Amino acid sequence: MTLRASTRVRGSGRVGRCFAMSQPPEGPPSFSHLRSPFNKAIATRYYDGPMEGFLLHRDWQEACVFRLLDWDRETDLRVFEIVRVDDLLFDDAVGLLFRDRRPTWPLWVLPSTQRERGERLVDECFERGRAVATVTTGDLFGDITKWEVADDAPLSSSLNGLLRREDAG
């Protein structure tokens, strides 16, 4: 709720300030300072950290894809778009991208020989996936500074858990 100030003229001719409560516009919830729900990442693009690729969410078998939207180099906070791909398991994405070098976890940076293929697969997945959130963080595996739920985010036990923790705190 926010306070909105307005000026009114009273019967005595004096001007006074009156405050009224107004409701913030309805929208999807957002959360601050959460533990990351991501266990593994495949970076198809990497520069001082992952910029694009695949994520494994601790509560989903389906792959998520992510891409960097913005980066504040002074604070090293990055803003990522996260999309869940309901018809692709994370393990299947690993199988599609694995060729000559074994994955390293929690972060596997694709070798240069596989990057073009990986970037094409990420683009295809963004086209057919469902937006989950916009995430602000300095580390996809650490503290999520801000998690903004997408308008049509799929329901999941994790999002319900986030809602319960936020309500309690």
Low-confidence stretches: 1-25, 157-161, 163-169
Order of helices and strands: EEEEEEEHEHEEH
Order of strands, main sheet, comes to 3-10-9-7-6-5-4-8
By DSSP (H or I, 4+ residues per run), the number of helices equals 3
Helix content: 10-25%
- In total, the number of domains comes to 1
Shape descriptor: globular
Question: Count the strands?
Answer: 10
Spatial separation of the terminal alpha carbons: 18 Å
User: Structural class of the secondary structure composition?
Assistant: alpha+beta
Q: In angstroms, what is the radius of gyration?
A: 21 Å
Mean pLDDT: 81
Largest sheet: 8 strands, mixed
- The percent range for strand residues is over 45%
Give the arrangement of secondary structure elements.
Blueprint: E1 2-9, E2 15-22, E3 30-35, E4 38-46, E5 50-57, E6 62-72, E7 77-89, H1 90-97, E8 107-109, H2 112-128, E9 130-137, E10 143-149, H3 157-168
Parallel strand pairs: 4-8
Antiparallel strand pairs: 1-2, 3-10, 4-5, 5-6, 6-7, 7-9, 9-10
